[in-house]
Specification:
By secondary structure, the protein is an alpha+beta fold. It has two helices and three strands, in the order βββαα. The chain has a three-stranded antiparallel beta sheet with strand order 1-2-3. A hairpin with a 7-residue loop joins strand 1 and strand 2. The longest helix has 10 residues. The chain is flat and about 40 Å long.
């Protein structure tokens, strides 16, 4: 884990029901379209990595985030 990068996703920061998800970056791919750079980041759950198991797939998209944000 020395050379791996970690991502933290925090929902409801500074609230009582704050949730923190930690992921390890396993792969980064870059694509160029004209003047735009698109980076795709693949991660696996930190807890599953530390236990030596494969994590479940969890997709974070703007639609999911927007829906959760409106519900909060």
């Amino acid at each position: 884990m020395v050379n791996l990068r970690k991502i933290k996703v925090i929902f409801n920061k500074k609230m009582l029901n704050e949730k923190v998800f930690e992921f390890l970056v396993t792969k980064i791919t870059e694509e160029h379209e004209k003047d735009h750079l698109l980076c795709k980041v693949e991660c696996e759950g930190l807890a599953f990595h530390e236990l030596g198991r494969r994590g479940y797939t969890y997709t974070l998209s703007f639609d999911d985030f927007d829906l959760d944000y409106k519900n909060w």
